[in-house]
């Protein structure tokens, strides 16, 4: 009220002064309004600058004396800058009836514009506060990997919707409830327009409640070419940064409607699976003679096993009177069986295999590409680069060790193999060529 009285006093003084100077009353009215308008603009600018510097400066000083991050986030999200705009707004509201006292028809439209600005300013302040709350929640362990952005977007949509209703009511002069009632007839259209938003909101709640995906999880969704870390979960999309540094955007709703793989369980368990086979050439599998067993007994990892097992086999064969002049009679060790035992012993003593998870070497069904010896074991380091290095080291060793057991790894003939075969003296090249053609057909 005091501000309004001051403006009224200034208005009377300037008007009377202009009239006393001999200016016509009609011209004095317009010039008086123009002078007051310019004065209000200057005061608004000065007040806005002063209040912004005062509030932001005080906030900075206060934040430096506290250990909490909340006040720092308030400053970063411009909460105090928006609050500083309230003071000049009050000044404008108080000055309008005085500046345009001689033009009453202008007061109502201008007052409506200030009311619209008040609604917008309120929305900006609330949004800044919501962003501050979101950023603060993300600094806490409880909400760091939760889709907080999704819920913030829903609140923002509701906030803008209510703000739009208020602005519509101010501009049209109709009640808010009248507009809401009119919108009831268009609810089907609204549901269609906001279908993705509604589905995304429901999906965000389900994803958060069921703890299906967190920010930072490694997920694989082959249908959409996603294979990497989740970097953002919002109302409508989930952003995945693939390992080639590209970004894949997936609709949030598809996380509950489609299938995807989350590697969090593997990372939390502390072990990553190796499941890979060595294809043994079947023609290289054989029984071991006594000389073979003696030679392989020099391999330290299976030395005790071979001595114990060979003693058991010898005692059994002697007790049964088995003729061992032919190795197929009675019990005998095979080179592939001993090789499996060697792999068992090797992975059991390996420093990077997880000793509390499944460790198994198994023989799979023979195929046209040989007999697979599958290694099923977990590494104790889940980091991708370390995992690949550990797996490569293990199979480097095993592939090099195969020949010590008189085994061969199956592989298709290469061009060099065929050229060497054709170049051998006495080779019937026409027969070989016919055989190759038959294989190709």
TrEMBL record:
Keywords from the UniProt entry: Cell inner membrane, Cell membrane, Membrane, Stress response, Transmembrane, Transmembrane helix
* Pfam families in UniProt: MS_channel_2nd (PF00924)
Location comes to: Cell inner membrane
What does the record list as GO biological process? cellular response to osmotic stress
Q: What is its main location?
A: membrane
Mechanosensitive ion channel MscS domain location, by residue? 196-264
Membrane-spanning segments: 28-48, 86-107, 113-130, 151-170, 176-194
* Topological relation to the membrane, as annotated: Multi-pass membrane protein
Q: Which Gene Ontology terms cover its molecular function?
A: mechanosensitive monoatomic ion channel activity
GO CC annotations? plasma membrane
Q: What name appears for this protein in its UniProt entry?
A: Mechanosensing system component YbdG
